[in-house]
Amino acid sequence: MRPENYQAKSQPPSNEYELNFGPNHPGIEGNYAFKVKLNGDEVLEARADAGYLHRGFEKLMEGRLWIQNIALVPRICVPDPVPMEVCYSLAIEEIGGLEVPERAQWIRVMHLEMSRLAAHLFAFGGHAATTGMYTPMFWGVADRDLVLDRFEELTGGRVYSIYNIPGGVRRDIPDGFLERLSSLLDYLESRLPDYDNLFFTNQVFVKRARDVGKMTQEQALKWGVTGPNLRATGLAFDVRRDDPYLVYDRIEFDIPTEPGGDALSRNLVRRAELKQSIHILRQVIDRLPSIKGPIRCPIPNPLAWNVPAGEAYTRVESSKGELAYYVVSTGGDKPYRVHVRGPSSMHAVQVLENLAVGCRLEDIAQIMFSLDACPPEVDR
Amino acid sequence: MSDIPYKDKGSILRPIKALSFLARKPVTEKIEPRPAAANYRGFHVNDWDLCIGCSTCQKVCDNAAITMVKIPGLPEDPVKGIRNERPAIDYGRCCWCGLCVDICPTSSLSLTTEYVHTCHEDELDSYFILPDPKGIHHKHFPKGWAKTADADLVDLERQPMEELDAEERLKSFDEMVEGFTDQQAIIEASRCVQCGMCHDSCPTHMHAPEYIRAIWEGNAEEAVRQIYRSNPFSHVCGRICTHRCETACSIGRRGEPVAIRWLKRYAMDSVSDLRIREIAAEGKVDYISGKKVAIIGAGPAGLTAAFDLISKGHEVTVFEALDKPGGMTRYGIPEYRLPYDRLDADVAVITSLGVKIQYNTRIGQDISISELERNYDAVLVAIGLQQGRSTRIPGSDHKQVKKAVELLRKITQGKAFNIPQSAVVIGGGNVAMDIARSLARLQKENYGEVRITLTALEDFDHFLADAEEIKEAREEGIEILDSRGPKQCVTNDKGQLSGLVTLRVNSIFDDDGRFAPSYDDSDEQVHPADMVIEAIGQMTDISLFGDELTERLEWNRGRLKVEQDGRSSEPWLWSAGDMVFGPDVVHAVADGHRVAASIEKHLATPGSW
């Protein structure tokens, strides 16, 4: 149609309008979008528009050998990839009846908690940026980088560890690693008051985040909310304690909760979990040197490995919430079906669509970051 | 509830606390380039001297980032299991997971701590890189993620094979190896990385990766089908093959090679003889060509050719001088290594396709070869090496100096002979081991003790017999002496053989590489024995050709001269097997195929017969 021929359709007078929020928007995590209907600044309706990062992971996995998927699963959630590897491995171990050596289990817990630290630092940094506070963002990312340094040393990769394989872990910890990890924990712990001063008790943030994206515990349970977001509604549910895996039942830690159910509470829970993760890691550092033995149980040649027929549903507590893998084997060298139950699918779609209604446009970004939803994992 | 005092609004002067940061080190600061961690998964290096081009890295790569590239200047040797291919990495696809490193059978591939690579505009394809020992920029970065024992994804240990112990073995000629159980076979088959080195090294290019895969899948019938693509003597080869496949096996670079021979045996033993016949018949054409082929000798070469030719619709008649088929596999190999019923099963598959075998028919005596020339469209001579060679040392014409092959034949046929109370075997090959170990069993049965000495020219580092044969022979009480050359057979006053005198060997070959052993005369030993057995090689009995044909045919140092495809200088006459290439079953099978293809081509060409 040529511009001169364009005639606007007559519409009834209204203050409502539609806006595409994303997929490339600084207030959105990754490539993700909302179609929002607004009345002025007020959101009347929000519709999640996912799929920009769809890579078909679940289908891809059906065409790859069991071991090859180890390199694939971390990519499902970029900021917190370790639970993906562990959860996938746990499922295969359950189907195949593999006994993971105790040392490997402790190393996995260490790896998981390091990943939680990195992910939470990233999350609060991201949230700070949505409220215009850029120093916490730089701090969060810079301190996360120190965790990545330890990842690099432990696993050979900074972001995608590809370190957990069915049966255990791929390498033992390097010499002196625990000492360096310990000093990193000391440093991070010393940073917590700074984070509080700058961000978590900063009234600019507190007032901005309070009562934003507020949900009740009932709503949270109905919508399938898990992880820190659920604990921010006052329910102390944590897979690590309530359905323990690895050696979490031998580790002492608290489950922080907040009653508010709003963006502020969610951040406060994450802030408290930083401290708990440090506490868990210190216990691992104490225990690990005394646990000798192999780091992996023998697995068959990966090119000719038929995992026995069966299915398993395994779940772990990732930094974003409950992550689960449902894996079906028909006895072949590849999975018959892998389903990923990612926490972000719920948080970024139905929860966000509900919470956004009634908020102001600028709060959408804040809600999304406070839910710590991960678009790559939504799309998979 | 967390203990974070977020409700505390604090003093109005609180922002002044921020001034304390003036004296502190910044959190975000410029960092300088630094070396990566010791375990880092950076760009690849590949030690080309260790790499054998087996392409296992390519198979495990989950991104299809690895392509095997032929490097013309590099050595290539299928027998040793070396290909002149090396992996090239597409760094546009690689995700640096390091699975290629963990599975590399040779441990030649590693990742380095190098992580920076940029390319110029004019070399946009520089993401596709062939890693060599120097790394992608030739800057010699240290290794990062490299093979460790913890993380090795290759299973280096073989499944144990149950065997009778030496004491039990000596009691009879029962088969000593018990074979894999189903579970063992599947586990053993799962060790295979499907590199195909075995296929390349096998003289008859058996489809070992395919049948190992089928065994792993629990499909023994499919394994037999794959086996019959290239070898109708698989019961035999599953037991006594010289298994060059295992020498070439890439898993054998650092560990024990996959037990390919035992897996073949397992597959053959798992399927009923009837079903094997049905599977073997699947490849047979459903028409009759009307052509007739005569094959002389019912050994592996002749019967393999018969199998191929009958499958193509030709009428095949095999003439065998003795009363049973198998040739040297029956009359040369003791039953404890190859039970006769297994050999019979292989032959029965071939005869079930319609091959006729005329036993007790010696060409040259019962039928002349010219008669075969007249009555058949093609004639194949595959009579093997039935006559033992003599050392021709003084005293070797004594009646108690025997040839190993002749003695082995007698044992198989059950013919009586005087079992020596003590014997010396001259020779260090598998035939020498066979006769020594067979005699050991007979001595044990008759005299209750083993008194056999085996003397070989070669030292133990260059011994001709398989290492396991040496080990087992020793377990059975046979004394093996290396680097001893025979000087003469000595007799006592009564003219009875009393022993063999040997000298220490200085060298076996002269400067030109010709066989010319030299001895140290000062180091002489006498080995008392009432029988000396020569096991130093075999030759063909060519009397069947007759004087006139022998004159017409071309010869090469005592062996019939043939073309590459086995055809002799006479257009109707082919030759195959041991008599052309020397003793080895699997070579004979390969040769049978080659010659059958040539005969088939000849018969399929109009006007050529």
Multimeric state: heterodimer
Q: List low-pLDDT spans of chain B.
A: none
- The top-level CATH class of the largest domain in chain B is Alpha Beta
**Whole-number average pLDDT of chain A?**
88
Supply the CATH superfamily name of chain A: Cytochrome-c3 Hydrogenase, chain B
A few lines on this structure:
The complex is a heterodimer of chains A (380) and B (609). By secondary structure, chain A is α+β, with helices and mostly antiparallel strands.
Provide structural commentary.
The complex is a heterodimer of chains A (380) and B (609). Helices cover 45% and strands 13% of the residues of chain A. The model of chain A has no long low-confidence stretch (mean pLDDT 88). Chain A has a single domain (16-379), classed as Cytochrome-c3 Hydrogenase, chain B (Orthogonal Bundle). Chain A has helices at residues 57-62, 82-96, 102-130, 134-155, 177-200, 203-209, 217-222, 227-231, 239-242, 263-287, 343-356, 363-371, 375-379, and strands spanning 16-21, 33-39, 42-49, 164-165, 168-169, 310-318, 321-329, 337-341. Chain A has 380 residues and is α+β, with helices and mostly antiparallel strands. In chain A, helix 4 runs antiparallel to helix 5 (177-200). By secondary structure, chain B is an alpha/beta fold. Chain B folds into four domains: 44-129, Alpha-Beta Plaits, CATH 3.30.70.3270; 169-283, Alpha-helical ferredoxin (Fumarate Reductase Iron-sulfur Protein, Chain B, domain 2), CATH 1.10.1060; 288-386 and 552-609, 3-Layer(bba) Sandwich (FAD/NAD(P)-binding domain); 389-537, 3-Layer(bba) Sandwich (FAD/NAD(P)-binding domain). Helix content of chain B is 30%, strand content 16%. Chain B is built from 21 helices and 22 strands. In chain B, the strands form seven sheets. Chain B has a five-stranded parallel sheet with strand order 8-7-6-9-22, sandwiched between helices. In chain B, a hairpin with a 5-residue loop joins strand 15 and strand 16 (497-509). Chain B is elongated, with a radius of gyration of 32 Å. The termini of chain B are far apart. The mean pLDDT of chain B is 86. The chains are: A alpha+beta (380), B alpha/beta (609). Chains A and B meet through helix 4, helix 5 and helix 10 of A and helix 1, helix 2 and helix 4 of B.
